[in-house]
Amino acid sequence: MDLEWMAWTQVTAVFFVTIALILIAMTLAELRFPTVERQGFLPIPTTRGDRLFLSLLLAAFIHLGFVAFTDVQTLWTPLAISVLAALLMMRFG
């Protein structure tokens, strides 16, 4: 399979593998422990999948904000912030 036309790098591959592993883990968690809607600090009742989706959106916005408004060359800082935000969203959202 020739993927030369795409900008595949090791970082890109790790990103997509990580997303796939998260989706597999969420599927297994749903099968083992069915989710129920709950009200956290978000203004709407959410399920585990809703909070995951919102966490991924939040991570994208955090990264875009860092790229747009800072001169930071590495994305370790927004990654750390995104992981922390996702953990808080999944636990308390």
TrEMBL record:
Q: Where are the transmembrane segments?
A: 6-31, 52-69, 75-92
Q: Which InterPro entries match?
A: DUF2160_TM
Which top-level group of life is the source organism from? Bacteria
Q: Name the keywords, alphabetized.
A: Membrane, Transmembrane, Transmembrane helix
* A Pfam family of this chain: DUF2160
Name the record gives this protein: Small integral membrane protein
Query: Which species does this protein come from?
Result: Pseudooceanicola pacificus
